[in-house]
Amino acid sequence: MKDIKLSALNLVPIREGQNDEDAINDMVKLAQDLDDLGYERYWIAEHHNAPNLVSSATALLIQHTLEHTRRIKVGSGGSMLPNHAPLVVAEQFGTMETLFPKRVDLGLGRAPGTDMMTASALRIDQHNSVYQFPEEVEQLQQYFGPDHQQAYVRAYPAVDKKVPLYILGSSTDSAHLAARKGLSYVFDGHLKEALQIYRELFEPSEVLNEPYVIVCLNTIVAKTDKQAEFLASTMAQIIVSITRGRMQLMKPPTDDLQGLLTPREYALTNQRYKDSLIGSEETVRKQLEDFVNEYGEIDELMAISYIYDQDQQLESYRRLQHALKE
Predict the structure, then answer these.
(1) What domains, with CATH codes, occur in the chain?
(2) Which of 71, 83, 224, 229 can pair with 122 through a Cys bridge, CB separation 3.0 to 4.6 Å?
(3) Does residue 157 have a cis bond before it (omega within 30 degrees)?
(4) Longest Cα separation, the chain
């Protein structure tokens, strides 16, 4: 457990009573605090047509975060290739790698990160590009590769920058791709088969000799289990708002979650709690041990923490770090 690296994912949510600029400022402040704590990396997700999130122009947010931090690696969790030409992605991340050497990550996803109408507005051929994901990953590998591997079209200044690529997903398709390419696999689900496929079929590459597994989980750590469950009611309200099609701003925690939700919605949130790390340091440590016992060893835990109060959010990340050190 002590060897598991810690990182964080941020969707840049807008808290109730705040605006877009506040959300971006909160994003930077959290990155700075996690940088001071020694977290490994800080990723920013890509979502479009979401009024409760400010994470549509991911590359701009990554650069802004890099400019205001010192050591922590910053990247995309992920860049959704159906929405972007690989050449443009390589140019953007190659430029950031030039400005901030060895601190830029490129997580890659095959989903559009939005509804299909918005996806069509983002990229005309996005329906086909979903199925072109493996070929586009190869293109990116070439763009970031050495000079002798380049073709006529080159992604300057990405040539020979070797920006590390990570395959995102919870499906067996993503697991097969990450294994075949010898790339790190970022797992955001609970499909044991996908992790087994990745580990068993992994082929060593120029960037990795053995599998590297990052697991992304909702994580809320507090002084007591009861306090953590109270803070988690913010996450529960977000989950339910998505199922209702409303995408509401991040709301403060509540003691009356059951009264705000239908029985079906309340059952849904309880199930999501079971798939998360929520509780005191001791409880979360046990939950993570159970996860590792079921799914196998992991190299890194990427925590996403929907907590309304920024101080309590940072305290959660501190407690998570302490829990693993113990």
Answers:
(1) 3-223+276-323 (3.20.20.30)
(2) 83
(3) yes
(4) 64
